[in-house]
Design brief:
By secondary structure, the protein is mostly beta strands. The chain is built from 1 helix and 13 strands. It has a single domain, classed as Leucine-rich repeat, LRR (right-handed beta-alpha superhelix), CATH 3.80.10. It has one helix spanning 179-185, and strands spanning 17-19, 26-28, 41-43, 48-50, 65-67, 90-92, 99-101, 114-116, 121-124, 137-139, 144-148, 161-163, 168-170. A 7-stranded parallel sheet has the order 1-3-5-6-8-10-12, with no helix packed on it. It has a 4-stranded parallel sheet with strand order 7-9-11-13, with no helix packed on it.
Length: 186
């Protein structure tokens, strides 16, 4: 499949999943795309999409899985409206041309299992991850995050991968953290 995402996709009243990864899609995500409110899964990885991710994404209140990594999006801030999708468990926006302060609303995504915001230019502290007690994979590497690592991060039972390299983080792993053995044994 090549070309643009059809604007008519927003008319799909029973559509639950869209998998359009690696389809050579171009152009912007049409605003009407966010009218498909029954969507639970969206995979737009590895295309040539441009434009931005609209704050209208908040309309997708049933969304559990959203990835749009490795596209040619215009430089943009991550829309704070993303935090309104409290059902979201998987968010993959690595190499998505995200810049600026990360939205405070990320802290509201407490069901998060996989978060990949790596290879962007996001800034701010990491306090938003403190409530991610179900996280399995957290990739925030190659950004401009700063501050210290929240102590709660080391208490997450299910964490397999935590990648924070190439940021401006102070401090380190607490000496009391014994989970490194657990992470390495998974």
């Amino acid at each position: 499949m090549e070309g643009t995402i059809p604007a008519s996709i927003g008319n799909a009243t029973k559509l639950r999943a869209i998998d359009m990864q690696r389809q050579k899609l171009t152009g912007a995500i049409p605003e009407s795309f966010y009218d498909a409110t029954t969507l639970r899964e969206i995979d737009l990885d590895y295309n040539k999409l441009t434009g931005t991710i609209s704050s209208s994404i908040a309309k997708l209140t049933n969304l559990v899985f959203f990835t749009a990594s490795e596209n040619n999006f215009d430089e943009q801030n991550l829309p704070s409206a993303i935090g309104e999708i409290t059902s979201l468990k998987y968010l993959g926006l690595d190499s998505a041309n995200l810049v600026g302060q990360r939205p405070d609303s990320l802290k509201d995504l407490t069901r998060m299992i996989l978060l990949d915001l790596s290879n962007n230019e996001l800034t701010g502290d990491l306090s938003f991850v403190a409530g991610y007690n179900k996280i399995v994979s957290l990739a925030l590497d190659d950004n401009g995050f700063s501050g210290t690592i929240p102590s709660e991060l080391w208490e997450f039972e299910d964490a397999n991968t935590i990648n924070l390299e190439n940021n401006k983080i102070a401090g380190g792993i607490p000496s009391s953290f014994d989970g490194l053995k657990k992470l390495m044994s998974k």
